[in-house]
Automatic annotation (TrEMBL):
This is ABC transporter ATP-binding protein. The keyword Nucleotide-binding applies. InterPro entries: AAA+_ATPase, ABC_transporter-like_ATP-bd, ABC_transporter-like_CS, ABC_transpr_LolD-like, P-loop_NTPase. Keywords: ATP-binding, Nucleotide-binding. Gene3D superfamilies: P-loop containing nucleotide triphosphate hydrolases. PANTHER family: ABC TRANSPORTER ABCH.1, IMPORT ATP-BINDING PROTEIN. It comes from Paenibacillus arenosi. Residues 4-221 form the ABC transporter domain. GO terms for molecular function: ATP binding.
Length: 222
C-alpha cells in the first residue's frame, strides 16, 4: 500500500523554480535516500513532505488524504501524530538538560501510561546511542555528535510512521552512523517510512532505493 505520494510537485519562490515536477511514492517498511548537489531543493522537498511548506503546484497524498489544502492547524496535528523530523543541526534549548530537551515532544502528554512508556523509550535509546551518562548535562556540555544523537532520540521517541531526516549522520563518525542506521532499519521493519537526505554512501547503501535530485527533477538511481 502506498502511504506517501507526490505527483508533479513544483515549488517556486519569487518566480524562481526550486523543485520541478517531482514524483515520488513510498510505502510502509521502506527507507529511501535522496542525494543531490547543494541548492537543488532537498531540504525544501523534505519540508513539503513534513507539512512545513506547501508546494506551488502538484499533489501530495499521505494515507490517501490530500495534504495540499490542509490548514496550518491541520498540518501541525499531522506532524504531531505522524512525523519525526531529524534536522541537520538539531535545535536545542541551551538552558535545559539533555533529558529535558529530549522530552519536549511529550511536554503536553496527559496520559500517564504513555509518559511512562516514553521515559522507558528514552532510557533504552539513550543507552543504545551511548548518551545515557549525559542526560543530566546541559546541552552546551555536549559535542556536535552527541547533540545530534539526542536530537534523533527526540524525533523518534513517539515512534512516528514517517521519519524525515536531513543529513542525520553528518556530525557522526562512521561507527556511530552505522549504529543509527541499524536502528533505522529496525524502525523500518516495524512499519515506518524513512526518507533520508544524505551525501554519505554508507547511508544510501542501507536504503531500499536511492534518488538523485536535480533541477530537472527526481531520478531513481539505485
Amino acid at each position: 500500500m502506498l502511504i506517501l505520494k507526490l505527483t508533479n510537485i513544483t515549488k517556486e519562490y519569487n518566480s524562481r523554480v526550486i523543485l520541478n515536477d517531482i514524483n515520488l511514492s513510498c510505502k510502509n517498511c521502506e527507507m529511501i535516500a535522496i542525494k543531490g548537489k547543494s541548492g537543488v531543493g532537498k531540504s525544501t522537498l523534505l519540508n513539503i513532505m513534513a507539512g512545513l511548506e506547501r508546494a506551488t503546484s502538484g499533489e501530495y497524498y499521505y494515507n490517501e488524504i490530500l495534504m495540499n489544502d490542509k490548514s496550518i492547524n491541520s498540518l501541525s496535528k499531522f506532524r504531531q501524530a505522524n512525523v519525526g523530523y531529524i534536522s541537520q543541526h538539531s535545535p536545542m534549548i541551551p538552558e535545559l538538560t539533555v533529558l529535558e530537551n529530549i522530552c519536549v515532544p511529550v511536554w503536553f502528554e496527559k496520559d500517564e501510561e504513555k509518559k511512562k512508556e516514553y521515559m522507558q523509550q528514552i532510557e533504552s535509546l539513550s543507552m543504545l546511542f551511548e548518551i545515557n551518562n549525559l542526560l543530566d548535562k546541559k546541552i552546551n556540555a555536549l559535542s556536535g555528535g552527541e547533540i545530534q544523537r539526542a536530537g534523533i532520540i527526540r524525533s523518534i521517541l513517539k515512534k512516528p510512521q514517517l521519519i524525515i531526516a536531513d543529513e542525520p549522520t553528518a556530525a557522526l563518525d562512521d561507527e556511530t552512523a552505522l549504529m543509527i542506521l541499524t536502528h533505522f532499519n529496525f524502525l523500518k521493519s516495524e512499519g515506518a517510512i524513512i526518507i533520508v537526505v544524505t551525501h554519505n554512501d554508507i547511508v544510501s547503501k542501507h536504503c531500499d532505493k536511492t534518488y538523485q535530485l536535480s533541477k530537472e527533477g527526481l531520478l531513481l538511481i539505485s
